[in-house]
Design goal:
Number of domains: 1
Number of strands: 5
Strand order of the largest sheet: 3-4-5
Number of helices: 1
Largest sheet: 3 strands, antiparallel
Shape: flat
């Protein structure tokens, strides 16, 4: 199976490697429990794409490591924890200061 053409020119957001390089390494792995894994990337059977570590550290357009100013986020109220308010920082997207690539989630 070939990698979905939408991902051919992209980079992984968790590690910055080219998606085609990751795909090639995943294809060399053996199937176990209907999936193949390589360095935190997973391809499930009958899928033409892979899942990453679900982190935003690198630009999908050029692969460089993003800095804090590139990433857009906001705190979301999660409820009360005793007498304190609990919140979580949610990533909304990023705009790469290196290449200008923008991604919104």
């Amino acid at each position: 199976m070939e990698l979905n053409t939408d991902y051919h020119n992209k980079f992984c957001m968790c590690c910055g490697k080219r998606s085609v390089e990751i795909w090639d390494n995943i294809q060399k792995q053996k199937w176990a429990d209907n999936k193949r894994e390589w360095m935190g990337h997973t391809q499930y059977q009958d899928r033409d794409y892979f899942y990453d570590k679900n982190t935003v550290k690198h630009c999908e357009g050029c692969g460089v490591e993003l800095n804090a100013e590139d990433i857009h986020s906001q705190y979301e109220f999660m409820g009360m924890f005793g007498m304190s308010r609990a919140s979580q920082n949610i990533v909304l997207g990023y705009k790469c200061s290196n290449c200008g690539y923008e991604e919104k989630f």
